[in-house]
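Reviewers asked in the last cycle whether our approach scales beyond single polypeptides. To address this, we selected a multi-component target totalling 669 residues and predicted its structure end to end. The input consisted of the following lines:
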Amino acid sequence: MIELKVIPLETDILIIGGGLAGCMAAIKAAENKGLRVILVDKSNTLASGCAASGIDHIWSYIPPIHEKMGYTIEDMAEDHRQGIAYGLFRKDLFYLVAGTMYERVLDLEGFGLQFRYEDSKIPGKFRIVQQFHSVPTSFNFDGKPLKIKLTQEAKRRGVNIINRVQMTDLITTNGQISGAVGVGTRTGDIYFFQAKAVVLSSGRSNRLSRNPSGFDFNTRLPAPLSGDGTSMAIRAGLPIINIEFLSSRLLAPCGNYCPNYGDPRNTVQPAGRIVDGEGNIIVPRTQFYGWENLGKEKFDPVKTRQRWIEDRKMWRGGRATLPERVTQGEGPFYLDFNEGTDYEINYIRWSIRNEGKGTQFMRYFEGEEGLDLRKNSQEYAGWANRELSGTAAKGLWVDKDMETGIKNLFAAGDEVGGLPWAASPGAFTMGWHAGEMAAQRAKGQKEFLPVSDETMKLRKEICSEILNRKRGFYWKEVEIYLQNLIDFYCGDVRGEGLLRRGLKRLEYARNAPLKAENPHELSRSLEVKSIIDNAELVLRSSIERRESRPAFDYRRSDYPEQDDKNWLVFLAVRKEEDGGYSFTKIPIE
Amino acid sequence: MGFRHIYFKEDACTGCNICVDVCMCDALAPNPEKGKPPIEMYPDECWFCGCCMTFCPQLEKGAIRIVTPFPMRGAFRRKD
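The resulting structure, written as structure tokens, was:
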């Protein structure tokens, strides 16, 4: 019989998840001398979360640029609402993110990141490209070492970083957060935290669907992110929004690496265009903004927005998307940089290398395949994995100060729902704000609340059982069962009959006895439990949303029409004390 | 030996294990023999972020190499 060690720890502020949001929350909270801050990460903050291997762009309202242009933050909010969020949009969160990201960029510069370049023609020497709005709003920068710099800054400020611990449970006392439980991924030790305030920033769930590349962990965003935060939150009775929006399979331009490759649907880096097999242009090439005219021309935000939205219809919200066209037998389609100038091509190569898997795969493409962006095109070939609410921002419902329905429990980054494509700017700004608010609360509270050890003991028992079990299922068997289940019963077009049957079959996954031979397998088993919780919410919320909403890849065979009158709302699901689920429609402000 | 895609060059790798430390998926394990290259424990659990390579202090000497699995290779159209 394996007896697991219990490690009790006390801290003023506990931050769960050390990605961008968690690191920013820790850094901000640790400004307050005398407050103890513990940051827990399932991996290692040096290389964890969606920015593990870097990011190359951050969207923001940029006052020194946009004021010159005559583009207001209200214009930007309207761009975001219409062109990116398709109406499903939390304005308060948008203003927090867009309105404070520029200050955070200045902070990041202070932490040692480079945002300014001698060859830039843009005021401030920034590099700024178009992405999610009708004018350029995204900084390009050397974001490769982001997580290293944030880790250094957090340590410099005295944050206690505990790596390789997977958090599993939140503990409340009289409706207020009082502690949390985690499990060492390399040790199996049970971590029992007591805290005055907690920030939840564990990210989303990236393994809900089978990976079409055949490599299960080859997800676009990190595979280790299993939705542990959503699982903890739903078990704690908190509402989750938008979780029915599980996307269709995506097309990736290069095998299944799924990079942000400067194609015209994402960061609009220069020169990318999409062509079909005959060389016909499907989406025309993009170009750098004419910065030399900044402030000299009269700017018309409405006309600019209309033109931009019309351009985007090549991807969404009107014409069939490329993945849809391929499923209808059209194609092949290629990403093509052939008309780019040397400067543009080098800019793209620089940018790609700063983000995600870019460094690694550019080394492979250029080094091993001899890829030349000037001459070769890359086919939108492999199917990439389905993603949970990439466009629709699934997550916790929080107030404008990032507080959840549990007092002193805050959330940040991808853990929070309601702002489509909040992405890294969401993580930086919400993390910072959540860290600030958590610190205020912790300062205002002298004593720790009494914490029951019941949850900890239960978690210890579950882990011991998994480790001691002789006959049972290996985590991966249950995970594959579940992914097959989601792809079949909750596919690109969903109907109530299949969804209900899927829920029934999900019970088998829930009841499947898991076994693990070591702490690593134990951790994966606990991840599978999180994935089951996330999958159940996807199924239940899909049954509840009785309409179709193509902009979010949401299609019901039994409700084929988009129904804005009844369904242009956030759908919040929560678990009641009796184990049942309830739904609330939250109107758009 | 089954499928693997991370290769270490024994005379370039110093066995510092930084790749083991930073691997987000905990797919690598230190070699029980000190100074020797790590072991790819769970090749199926790699998400191809490449951090093991970018953090490697001996990268230029070829201490670590990720070989892109065959089904994940790029599909190109070449004009030359």
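Chain A has a mean pLDDT of 92. We regard this as preliminary and will revisit it once experimental data from Aim 1 are available.
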